[in-house]
Amino acid sequence: MNDKGHRPLTGGNGPGGSRASRGDALDLGSSSVRGILGILDGGRIVTQELFRVGHEVIKRDGHLVWDIDSIMAGVREGLDHATEVLGQPPASIGVDAWGVDYGLIDHSGHLLRPPRAYRDTRMAKYAAEVDRRLPPRAAWEWTGIQPQEINTAYQVFADLAEQPRLRQTVHTLLPIADLAAYLLGATPGIGRGIGSSTGLAIPGASQWSAQVLNALDIPHEWLPHLVSDSTVAGTTDDGSAIVRCGGHDTACAVHSLGLGRDDVRLFLSCGSWNLVGVTIPEALITAEAYDAGLTNEVRTDGGIRFLRNLTGLWLLQECQRYWRQGDIVRLLSEAWGSPSLGVVVDPDDESFVRPGEMPAKLAWWCREHYGVEPRDRGQMVRLVVESLACAHADFAERLERVVGPSLDSTAPIMAMGGGIQNSMLMAATASACRRPVVKSAVEASCLGNLLCQFEATGAIEPGGRADVVAASVQPESIEPGDPAPFDAMRQRLNEVRSAR
Question: Cα–Cα distance between 89 and 84 in angstroms, integer?
Fold first, then answer.
C-alpha cells in the first residue's frame, strides 16, 4: 500500500477521539464488495480493510444481471464488521460503485428485478435506433458524454423496447451506488457525479436533459432530482449518516488526489477499466473533444473529469481466469523475463469486450493483423501490459491537444487505483507517455469516499482536503525510460487501424 495510514485500527473510541471521524467506505466493484474502515486521526486518514467478498454477473431470463442480493448481503456484513471493530456503528458510510448500470424501483418502493449488467447484449439490438433518434454528435453536445452502447441511455431505451410495461410498473431509476444507499435507508436521489455518467444529464449534471429524455421517450418522472455530492442523504437503521460520495468509483478516486476545483492535472485511474483524464473546472464541449473520444464526467467537488474510458486490466484478469492463475506477481515475473512481441493490440477492439477465452482472442488478433502471436504466457502478459501503456500514451496526447496550454506538457501523470501495483505497467506507461508517473493511493476510491464522508459530516474543514491527503498518502515517482520501442509499436498499430 502507498497509503501511509493503512494499519490495524482499535475498537471503541480508538484514535482520533471523536465518533464523527469514523467512516465506512463501501466499495462495490464488478467482482467484489469491500468494506474499508477509516478513522481521521491527527489530520490523516488511517484505514483498514475489514471485509471483502466476491460476486459475479449471472445469467437470468436470457440476460446478464448482477446478483444484487449477494451484493447487499456483503454490504450489510461489511457494516456489521465495522460496528464490531468500533464497538458502535460508524458515524457515516458512503457507497461507490461502477457506472452506467441501475436498478428499477416499483411504486411500492421495492426493486423490480435484478439490475442488468453493462456487458449484457440487449443494447446491440437497439443501438441503431438510439443513434437514429439521438444522433451521436447531438447526444454529445447535449450531455458532454460520449455515446456508447453500455451507457445508461442505451440500456434504458433497450429495456423499454423489450418491456413496454415498465412504463407503468417503474417509479424510480437509481444507479447502483444510489440504489445501494437507498436500500440502506437513504432518500431516493442521484448524485451529480454518477448522474453525469448516465448520458441523460446536461453537461455538468446540474439537471436532466429534457432533449435526451424526449428523443428516447424515457419517462422524466423516473429520474429523481440530481443532488450535490459530499452531502448526507439519510441514515441507516443503526444511525450512521449515509453520504453521497460521488457514487462513481472514479469520481471518488479523483477526489483522493486532493486537488482543487480549478486544478488542471493529468491522471490515470487504473483497474479493470483504465481511465486517462484531466481535471478541469468546467465541461469542455468542442468538436475536437468529441472527435478525440473524450467525455465530461462530474467530480465530487463539482469540477469535471475530462477523460477517456479504456479497457484496462480486464484483459489480464480474463487471462488469469482462463489460466486459473491468481498470482499476478508470478505472471509479471514471467513477463519481465519474456521479450517484447514488438506489437500491441487495440484494447478497445470489440473482439475483447465479452468474457471468456481471452488468451485465444489476443493470439488471434495478433495473427490476423501482424502474422505473429505470443509464444508463451509471459509474452502474452507483456503484450497486454504494453498494449495498455500505448493506449495511455495515445489518449494523454489527445488530452494535451484538446485541453491546450493550461495542461502542463511536462507534468507527471497522477496514477491511482489497484492497477498501480503492477510495476511493469507503470514503468511502461511512463516510458510510452514520456512523463513521470506518480503513484498515489492504491485504495483511491475508498480514500476519496472517506474524504467525502468526513467533509460532509464536518470532520474535515472546508479547504482542508489537500492537507489530509498529503498526510495520508506516500507518493512514489517512476521516471520514464526509452520511449522508442513504444513509439514503434504505436506506429504499427496505427497502420493496422488505417488499413481497416
Answer: 8
Which residues, other chains included, contact 5 with Cβ-Cβ below 8 Å and sequence gap of 6+? 41, 44, 45, 46, 47, 472
As a whole number, mean pLDDT of residues 377-405 equals 96
Mean pLDDT of the chain: 93
CA 306, 311, 312, 315: dihedral to nearest 10 degrees?
180
Strands, E assignment, 245-372: 266-270, 273-280, 295-298, 304-311
* Helix axes 358-370 and 314-323, enclosed angle (nearest 10): 120
Q: How confident is the model at residue 29 (pLDDT cuts 50, 70, 90)?
A: confident
Q: Do 305 and 297 contact (CB within 8 A), yes or no?
A: yes
For CA atoms 462, 466, 467, 472, the dihedral sign is positive
Condensed to tens digits (0 to 9), the pLDDT of residues 478-499 reads 999 999 999 999 999 999 999 8
Lowest mean pLDDT among 153-157, 351-355, 421-425: 351-355
Nearest CA-CA partner of 240 in 84, 69, 22, 40: 22
Q: Under 8 Å CB-to-CB from 303, ≥6 apart: which residues?
A: 261, 262, 279, 280, 281, 282
Strand partners, 26: 35, 95
Collapse the DSSP code of 196 into the 3-class scheme (helix H, G, I; strand E, B; otherwise coil) and give the result: helix
- Any idea what DSSP says for residue 416? E
Q: pTM of the predicted model, to two decimals?
A: 0.89
What is the per-residue pLDDT for 409?
A: 83
Residue 250 parent element (H or E): helix 249-255
H or E stretch covering 40? strand 32-41
Distance between CA atoms of residues 28 and 268, nearest Å:
20
| All three cell numbers of 62 | 436470457
The helix/strand/coil state of 192 is helix
pLDDT at 9 over 60: no
